[in-house]
Amino acid sequence: MAKQETNFFDPNLLVELANTKMPFGKYQGYLMVHLPEAYLAWFKQKGFPPGKMGVMLETLYEIKLNGLTYLLTPLIKK
Fold first, then answer.
1. Hey, where are the domains in the chain?
2. How many angstroms separate the CA atoms of 54 and 49, rounded?
3. CA–CA separation, 71 and 7 (whole Å)
4. Is the pLDDT of residue 7 over 60?
5. d(Cα 69, Cα 46) in Å, to the nearest integer?
6. Are the beta carbons of 75 and 19 closer than 8 angstroms?
7. Closest CA to 27 of 16, 9, 40
8. Which domain of life is it from (predicted)?
9. Which is more confidently placed, 45 or 3?
10. Alpha-carbon distance 6 to 53, whole Å?
11. Distance CA 3, CA 27 (A)
């Protein structure tokens, strides 16, 4: 019997990424989706913070690295 892989990805994370403001640091107050890729790369090198914020920043890094930011733009609430 083949082992079934479980997917724990929460699609609401993308909506949250598009609408959460950076709570600390140089870009405090910016929407996370607008953080520069270089800033996210710095976190990748130094280590993402623990917890949900780290997961969000790492996910955003992968999205930007792969040129997929356009997927988050329509999710920004006006």
1. 33-78
2. 5
3. 20
4. no
5. 23
6. yes
7. 40
8. Bacteria
9. 45
10. 23
11. 43
Q: Which residue has the higher pLDDT, 12 or 66?
A: 66
Give the pair of three-digit tokens for residue 3: 């082992």
Q: Which two tokens stand for residue 30?
A: 């910016």
CA-to-CA distance for 21 and 23, rounded, in angstroms? 6
Which residue is it, tokens 């130094």? 46
Q: Which residue stretches of 1-78 are H helix?
A: 12-19, 37-46, 51-65
- Return the half-sphere exposure (C-beta side, CA atoms, 13 A cut-off) of residue 4: 3
Residue type (1 letter), 9: F
Phi/psi region, residue 25 (left: phi>0; alpha: psi -120 to 50; beta: rest), is left
Which residue, 34, 18, 15, is CA-closest to 26?
Answer: 34
Looking at residue 9, its pLDDT comes to: 67
What torsion do the CA atoms of 30, 42, 65, 10 make, to the nearest 10 degrees? Answer: -60
